[in-house]
Write a structure and sequence with these properties.
two-stranded antiparallel ribbon; six-stranded antiparallel beta sheet; alpha+beta
């Protein structure tokens, strides 16, 4: 990722408490989202299907993700509906 070799990844739960605690402990994580065609991520329309993003923080509103070269703010409600996988990244 961005020129950094990944040594290992670990699958974690996608619930809000896990996202918050693990981000505080390990920093950015990879996440897999599943969406229906036309659904938006933080206002950005998608073609649906699976989408990988980097979780680079959170606010009271929800996770802050990096996708399509930009930082986007998701809501916790959207996250709960779309997040199907979350992995720690160890380099």
């Amino acid at each position: 990722i961005a020129g950094v070799a990944i040594k290992s990844v670990a699958l974690m739960g996608t619930d809000q408490l896990t996202v918050q605690n693990e981000y505080e402990n390990i920093g950015p994580m990879l996440a897999s989202l599943t969406m229906i065609p036309g659904q938006a991520i933080a206002g950005e329309k998608t073609s649906g299907g699976g989408h990988m993003v980097v979780v680079d923080g959170f606010t009271p509103q929800g996770p802050v993700i990096i996708s399509w070269g930009q930082m986007l703010q998701m809501t916790w409600q959207q996250w709960e509906l779309e997040a199907v996988g979350l992995w720690s990244i160890n380099s």
